[in-house]
Amino acid sequence: MDLHFTVDGHRFVADVSASPAIDEFLSGRDWLVKNEAKWDFAKGTISPGDRLIRSYRCTLNEVCRHILVSEDCVVPPKHEANILVKMLDDGIPHLTSNWAIEPHRLEPGVMEACTLSDSHKELAAHVCNY
């Protein structure tokens, strides 16, 4: 599909494929060539055409992971449950503590909670159907 996106106020289009195994945008050689991009690794900049974009380094403290429900489940109204989930292996070491999950409205009246526990070697997200 064609993905229209903006970086630092500059608009771009890229022909992309989606995969649950990849949780970030990866620009390929074809996009770099099409946009006549010059990549200066020493300065940390990419210049597609006459635009200048500064690159940023991701640290382990700023990691975002894809978390998927392991199997279909039902949480009855006015109940809460720990739902088994799986996390795609992205090569980043797993932490041994609870992790934060961005609150997300699943549907009207159903929110996922804000922690992910891996204390029993199985990952579980706490879900509330209020």
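The record above closes out task 2.4. Task 2.5 opens with a second protein, given below.
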Amino acid sequence: MLLIVEDEPQVARVLARFFEARFPVAIVGSAREAQLLIEAGTSLVGAVVDAGLPEGQSAGLELTRELRVSMPDLPIALISGRVDRDLINSAGRLSATPLCKPIEKADVEVFIDRIEARAPITALAEKYDLTQRETELLHFIAEGGDVADFLTAKGITRSTFNTHAASICRKTGARTVTKLALTALGDAARRHHR
């Protein structure tokens, strides 16, 4: 599910049209509604968050921070009607894609590509009930990341990494996490080109 958090109904409808052909979409008008949806266990492929929400001018940034903590690798776009250096810098620090209103389809294509590239791994993680850390590890491998970088970024040891990798292999029946990631990406590419 792609979460759109936007308090202007017309903007929310435009955003939904950009995404709904590719993903199921949930639209909410406040940070609180978004939090309730997440607490209900809704599985997200990405989120588009308006920086200024009814709860206050920084509510969108706060929600983005919370999403980043609970779902570190979730693709997030932070949108605003004003071009503001502080907002763009905040988006960068939160690894969010900044988008300025009015939003055109071309503005969201890179963001959509990022979500779609992650979809096969996300689906695999849901199918085999992988933990958040196992899913992060699999995404990282699928994106061609270096194991040493993953260890540093997540603050874990090589032994812990190996434990997560072994758990993934046990749950999925795969021989290695690299082969599993490549197979998932290859299967998705073949389905896409049919």
